[in-house]
Amino acid sequence: MKRRDFIQKTVASSALMTLGGLSLSSFNSVENSTKTKKITILHTNDTHSHIDPFEKDHPKYANMGGVARRANIVNQIRQTEDNVLLLDAGDIFQGTPYFNYYGGELEFKLMSMLKYDVSTMGNHDFDNGIDGFYQQLPHADFDFVSANYDFKNTILNEIVKPYKILIKDGVKIGIFGLGVELNGLVDKKLYKETVYNDPIEVSKDIVRKLKNEGCELIICLSHLGYQYKNHPDKVCDITLAKQTKDIDLIIGGHTHTFLEKPTIETNLEGKPVLVNQVGCYGVNLGRIDFYFTNDKKFDSSTRNIIV
To answer: For FRET with 14, which of 44, 88, 275, 296 sits at 20 to 30 Å CA-CA?
Structure first.
């Protein structure tokens, strides 16, 4: 079959969860064509063990969030879209007594019920140590990817893979993960012999492999952080986008950045890269629609929608 052109990165709809149910605003439509294929990417980051909604008197997130509401939105979207992926950019653990008591079991079980496809690891996912993370993996019916953490001398060797390839409606999708530098951020005894490698150089190698595998859509699940204005030399998602090529979407985490709309950066070849992050604590759900066709290209809105 003729290779499809990447056509469009439509909005990441960042759906704010409110009491009494949620509805998603409609996106600009793409004209009907049997040649057009649509892939819907839903994503979260830095949920930090927030299982329940925030209290009604919370000063910032009153009545927002909660896994049940997220599940409601995800299920609504899956009822109307055929090709949906649900992804996470790390820091699943730490932030409420649920983690302190259950050690991550509840978080993984609930994510499995929501049918997450792939997640990467954040620094707080090491908070019970690499052994504690490993002990909870039987409760996770989804895969973890991390390309720049070398786990070969740890219990996670051959378990956390650099990348995963999924196929939706004939479209081959490559998903890889990147993690933040652990030294100075996490106690060495927690991550043990895990080796941190340069994210930029690792990404170049991984993306080359994914392209050679025939991936038409390449997604990075990044826990590097969106941007560090006071530390411009620190690797971040914006730097990653600018210094690499062939990455279509960077789903970020770590800096708890609430973006009103995805940032569009230019890569080494002058092509656009979408960078998005939806804050923290599960109060937002990101949505990005990609369209593929044999011979046409469509443009549409690229603004996040807050409901």
So the answer is: 296
